[in-house]
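User: What would this chain look like folded?
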Amino acid sequence: ELAILDICFGLGYNTFSTLYFYTLFGLPCRLIIYSPEIDEKMLNNLTYFPYPKEFENLALPEILYNLLTKQQYSTPQLHIDLFIGNAQDYLKMFAKQSIDIIYHDAFSPKENPSLWSTEFFGDLSLLLKQDGILSTYSQSRVIRHRALSQGFLVYDCKAKLRDIRAGSLMSKQDISHNALLSQFYHLKPWSKPILH
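Assistant: Here's the prediction, encoded as structure tokens.
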């Protein structure tokens, strides 16, 4: 099994992109995606959202119907759990070190400060497996300091193959020489700047 925590569901791009690549490469494991979302009004409008053509083969109408009516979608190889509510409350439901990958894609710290707090990074650290990875679009020095203070190693991350926005990868162990990640990303360890 591969367990992914997608914070927050939003329009579903992280979840659906993961499902797209999971299907494209035929990964030989069960995929489980957990995702909180507090904006129920936005969720109810997703059936009208114009998703990219790459998602056409994903049975999105069926997936969205089940997520919006039952808060889950399940097949033998896939399970998606949508929690409508506060992400901090949702995290309390998970066992320690039960998540392989975390997509930290919450609205900006200015709009949603609790999901970028030192305490929240502490909660994420407890859930992430020792060899797990957290990805985020944030390159904020303040956010990186908070992650460092909770035991994460932080890396500048830039995609090699496409013009994709740079971000940060975080982990509990050194991933700077990870062969699989190095195929797709330029990783540079980031450390707290020394002030003179």
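The first strand starts at residue 2 and ends at 7. If you want, I can go into more detail on any region.
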